[in-house]
Amino acid sequence: VLGQSPEALVGVNMESVSCSAAAVRTGDMESQRDLSLVPERLQRREQERQLEVERRKQKRQNQEAEKENSHFFAATFARERAAVEELLERAESVEGLEEAASRLQGLQKLLNDSVFFLAAYDLRQGQQALARLQAALDERRRELQPKKRFAFKTRRKDAASSTKVDAAPGIPPAVESLWDSPLPKKAEGDLGSSWVCGFSNLESQVLEKRASELHQRDVLLTELSNCTVKLYGNPNTLRLTRTHNCKLLCGPVSTSVFLEDCSDCVLAVACQQLRIHSTKDTRIFLQVTSRAIVEDCSGIQFAPYTWSYPEIDKDFESSGLDRSKNNWNDVDDFNWLARDMASPNWSILPEEERNIQWD
Fold it and tell me: Helix 120-144 vs helix 98-113: angle between axes, to the nearest 10 degrees?
């Protein structure tokens, strides 16, 4: 540089060297920082990759487990269903049907326990198969009842309309002939009979059946409105259809109770199985040894069975129900299969609302 002293030139050179060294150091630090970020990014990416692999592995294991469970269910259900059908076919007495009834109850439990992994279609197929087996069991019970020595030639023309029950769809032909004919007095007093009885097409009445009238019979209540029905004793089955704003009190039912197309009712029932279909806004005080099933329902509330009458202990003993086992709050909703959310179609009746005046 012209005009500058040697000392000044040395100073300029030293300053340039210092700046260059500082720039080099800054570049090295940035490079080191970039290099330090590489392992961190790689580590995070590796962790994400491992998590994804684990998720896929868990998903595959869950799918395989569900597939294995479904295969086990299908094989077990088919084997037990065939066994029940064989028992029903070869049974020669009502007592001989007990094993079939017990294995049918086991099938119901198998289906209930499998609801979490079965597809909706398989669940519905199982439900329909159980309904067919239950109907076949009820029919065999009727067929194997001891024959009574009476004829249907004479009919009382003045039979009370309140004890007449219209023939319902699905009733076997052997039973349909009994619907419009009153039972002979001799048969009515025989506790071994299993005839259909009940009430239909009535409004605003108090209706009763005593133990001697309904012991081990099939009870049908249909087309009732604003009625109170009291069934003292031990029926075989109970069916309640197309009923509105009624109160039903029933002693222990040996097998199944079925509700359909009912609304605004209050029921007290004890049974082995309970199925509710197309029913709304109904409170049920329940004693059940299996699990209740609801389908196409809304506003159903459950509470423990609380009705009592003087001979109820005897009727429970006759029914074969285990009073120590009550699954009143264990309900399957076939329209709500989500595992992590409660069904909006049924609920537990709050304790402060359970004080019902039965009389």
Answer: 170
Architecture of domain 43-144 in this structure: Up-down Bundle (1.20)
pLDDT at 65: 56
pLDDT score for 136: 87
Which pLDDT score is estimated for 264? 97
Q: Rounded to whole angstroms, how far apart are CA atoms 225 and 163?
A: 16
**pLDDT at residue 33 in the model:** 55
pTM for the whole thing? 0.50
Residue 150 has what pLDDT?
A: 45
| Residue ranges of the chain that CATH labels 2.160.20.70 | 198-353
Decide if pLDDT at 192 tops 60.
no
Instruction: Name the residue type at position 119.
Output: A
Q: Give the Å distances, CA to CA, from 330 to 16, 54, 261, 286, 313.
A: 87, 35, 22, 11, 24
**Residue ranges, CATH 1.20.58.1250, the chain:** 43-144
In the structure, what pLDDT confidence band is assigned to residue 66 with cuts at 50, 70 and 90? low
Contacts of 270 (CB under 8 A, 6+ apart): 250, 251, 252, 253, 286, 287, 288, 305, 316, 319, 321
Spatial CA neighbour of 299 closest among 328, 278, 272: 278
Least confident piece of the model among 76-80, 124-128, 279-283, 317-321: 124-128
Q: Please report the pLDDT score of residue 77 as a whole number.
A: 87
Q: Which residue type does 112 have?
A: N
Beta strands in 163-217 (DSSP E): 196-203, 206-209
Of the candidates 116, 176, 118, 110, the one whose C-alpha atom is nearest the C-alpha of residue 142 is 176
Buried b (16+ CB within 10 A) or exposed e, 30-39: eeeeeeeeee
Residue bearing tokens 């809304």: 298
CATH number for the domain formed by residue range(s) 198-353 = 2.160.20.70
C-alpha 343/C-alpha 234 separation (Å) is: 32
Which DSSP category does 140 fall into?
A: H
Please choose, from the candidates 22, 23, 1, the residue with its C-alpha nearest in 3D space to the C-alpha of residue 12.
1
